[in-house]
Structure prediction request, 321 residues.
Amino acid sequence: MPVEFKIPIPGVRFGHAEDNRVLTGTTVCFFDRPAVAAVHIMGAAPGTRDTELLNPEFTVDHIDALVLSGGSAYGLDAAGGVQAWLRENNRGIPLDPVRIPIAPCAILFDMRNEGDKNWGRYSPYRELGYAAIEAVTDQPQLGAVGAALGARTANTPGGFGMAATKLRSKGSLLAAAAVNAAGSALVGDTHHFWAAPFEENSEFGGYGLPHPWPDDAKQGRTKSGQRVAGANTTLGIIVTDVKLTAAEAKRIATAAHDGFARALYPVHTPADGDLIFVASTGQFEADDEALLDLGVLAGNTMARAIARGVFEAIQMTGQNK
Prediction:
């Protein structure tokens, strides 16, 4: 059975929906109240919808939800399903006579798994998006679920993972990741995770780092035959209850990419579309210490979320290699 994760930030919920025939899925991060958000893209082959709105110089400064999906470019349809649910529930920017829900979306490439991709005229992703936001909960499942159902790394199943950190001042930080990397979360051919120095409470096995250090560790593992642009991608979300401006959220998104480098090797390759969203629910005023902590801890917590997702997927599927 999949493991559940208790979200520590009030007003934030995640939901998954899957199509086991296609072997794909969608994950939604929903905010009870609109949240300030930003995004930073480091991969060379991203697939996104409405991410340009999140640049600090533009006028849309709050979002209703974030959407992660499998399906490559087809998966962008998931945002339409999320938007439909939001409209039905009277969410969005009021622009007479309608409301416009804002649900930026990013996708990963899971089209080479064994699922049946002959879905007919229309892809399943709009319905998956709707189902995922209907299923939001403060205790989402981890592992081979949602957007990461059909994902893989170079030598393991991919997975959806989460981790959280309490700040020294008021507030918390939550990281979520759908891992479909061209590289690997494991050191060489071992069962040890690159993210081991940041692990808490044996959340991904408690294996530590390998000793002696394997000779093959410097040789990056990549997916055979998937070194083309867009064939992979890890997607991340950072949520904090510390109040941030859009510009501050953008800076945290940039810092959080350090977590990708701490958890995956190689990373940010020409074949990945890696990106991280950051959202703030604004419960606590930020001071200089809190902003510094967020920048430092965003990367550490993201590294843990990536490793946790892969670890739980391995436990669920019994697959490694």
Notes: The chain has four helices and eleven strands.
